Amino acid sequence: MALIVxxxxxxSVGSPERIKNVAKRVAKFQAQGHQVIVVVSAMSGxxxxxxxxxxxxxxxxxxxxxxxxxxxxEQVTIGLLCMALKDIGQKAKSYTxxxxxxxxxxxxxxxxxxxxxEAPIRRDLNEGNVVVVAGFQGVDEHGNITTLxxxxxxxxxxxxAAALKADECQIYxxxxxxxxxxxxxxxxxxxxxxxxxxxxLEMASLGSKVLQIRSVEFAGKYKVKLRVLSSFQEExxxxxxxxxxxxxxxxxxxxxxxxxxxxxxxxxxxVPDKPGIAYQILGPVAxxxxxxxxxxxxxxxxxxxxxxxxxxxxxxxxxxGILEGVxxxxxxxxxxxxxxAAKVSVVGVGMRSHPGVASKMFRTLAEEGINIQMISTxxxxxxxxxxxKYLELAVxxxxxxxxxxxx
Amino acid sequence: MALIVxxxxxxSVGSPERIKNVAKRVAKFQAQGHQVIVVVSAMSGxxxxxxxxxxxxxxxxxxxxxxxxxxxxEQVTIGLLCMALKDIGQKAKSYTxxxxxxxxxxxxxxxxxxxxxEAPIRRDLNEGNVVVVAGFQGVDEHGNITTLxxxxxxxxxxxxAAALKADECQIYxxxxxxxxxxxxxxxxxxxxxxxxxxxxLEMASLGSKVLQIRSVEFAGKYKVKLRVLSSFQEExxxxxxxxxxxxxxxxxxxxxxxxxxxxxxxxxxxVPDKPGIAYQILGPVAxxxxxxxxxxxxxxxxxxxxxxxxxxxxxxxxxxGILEGVxxxxxxxxxxxxxxAAKVSVVGVGMRSHPGVASKMFRTLAEEGINIQMISTxxxxxxxxxxxKYLELAVxxxxxxxxxxxx
Lengths: 407, 407
Known about the structure:
Two copies of one chain form a homodimer. Chain A is of the alpha/beta class. Helix content of chain A is 35%, strand content 27%. In chain A, the strands form four sheets. Chain A has an eight-stranded mixed sheet with strand order 3-6-2-1-9-11-12-10, sandwiched between helices. Chain A is globular, with a radius of gyration of 24 Å. Chains A, B: This is Aspartokinase.
């Protein structure tokens, strides 16, 4: 008998019919002798509907009251799922975040979980109940309703799994696992049976949006076994996200090819190479809430250097405007920008012990005549910025070169 | 400075625009130096939408989970109203039933309020907040969400007014008060400045549906000053529902004329006049969940009697079918029914001290050639059943005869 936490997202519970399907799936699991805790999101579209309502009554909706309104979305789902379970003869009990209780700090709309009271859930499970918990929400020490921010239901699932020492936390979504790359670009892409947390973080932040990054970090920290599965398929093992690479197994060097089309490149030319220059350039950009991704500073030449970074395309004009304003102050020669950039990354914990990944990547791209504009590396990832028009080609050839194509 | 509880029903908060209007009204009250607790219902249509959802996932929605789902309707409204108040510069704080807490028994979907914790509300009021409480809901001793049943928001308002010893509980609705009769039938109908609780109970149960009967009983019991007002009019004192008749004032004998068109008459002819016969006739009818209104048993004649009662028209066929089935067993000669009945009542605490109300009523109807089919009386009410086609005429002539027409 295992204790399993299952999380179903908004699409999986998007209609009464789908909620009934989830109930059947959960009841089947329970019938196999497992104990099941289910975490659910609001029905798809519901959170947006509620937010739209708040904007109609207030120009700047108060965060405390926003949480009161928005948290009703998940509350409706837990009630519906429990009555669907009872309707097919499965004992079940619902909990709002406040009822569990999932104690958070008081940062409304982006609260952090501090503690979970596992006793009442444990008692209900032992009495044969499926326990259904509202994702995305909690309560602060004063009894105020809080929410964890978008995607917070994944975090609720992982946090419950950690608190109750569950054997596994299963995230049900509309894909059947994590793939070596996007199958829409590379039809030969393979579903991974396992991926490490570190790789998953790199894949997720690079655009393979299957799991909330925060929940992956959380699962890594508390060593929760996390599995991504499809809620629309009866069979399949999904992808298991493991705490560490299994040294007993033949580890592939590269686990996947990630990419991001939404990149724009900014280069500040001829800046004096002196301490503090990076801060002088990026400080004002960060102050304007522009997220900077890759940052490259070339070696000095005649006392000046070129400084490049990438931002999302929507932020490009803002970033360039800011830099034009400080250009004279920092003594730069010019500010250049490019909206046609794209980023491709090879990710894999195996590259730690296998040298030559970078050179293989660069050679593969060179053979196709693809020019590399920027390079950035980490322990388990190599990213390059290239012209956007070569993106699909680059992903395909790298996927093949690193032996990821399905047999 | 007064402490006022204001309750706004579903129509009054039926759209973002209307919620903003309620916010303005409440803020104005607060600006006059009063302390205000607001109780709100779900936006009109929302409760029905949620109930429809539950019926799509379960044939027999579990009552505990039904309360979890349905209580979100009021939770959305409290959040929206508070953010609308803050948006116009008025401090405000929302409370769900569980947050107050409004302690109830565990009878899901029809819970009774046991206790209200007034301390947190008192503290918020003293800090200058408008306190907004979700109507219709509470929490049992185990932390389960409960609801009070339809119309329960009025009860929440009265219960809060009682717990906090408020100066007045104002029920805002879509009419501007309680009238001597329905103005659609008698254009001369007057709004009453005051009415006693007992009269209100008779008026409400007879079809003048302004207030939930249960909340009126509650207000009477705890001596809460209750006032019915329009949420769509800026001015007006509405109707005050008083605990007892004010003996210093010239009391009108009759306060209003109530009526009910949805009546059907059943007569069981020639039943043996022996103990237990009423139960033999009405027992099976009650077992079938048919609500019986008036019950008349005529004096015995040759050892048999005629037994008549009224039911709502939708229940008539069911009632007649049941009685045809037991007719032989109880020894009745025949069962007759009439779908064209209607009931008219004169209501007033003044009739206790003024004899002659009944004879005046009967004479007035006789002068118009209206035949009386059944008569039933209480301390403060006389009801008659007449042919439906005479209903409007009867209400008009009685309204005039008892001096209720506006000057």
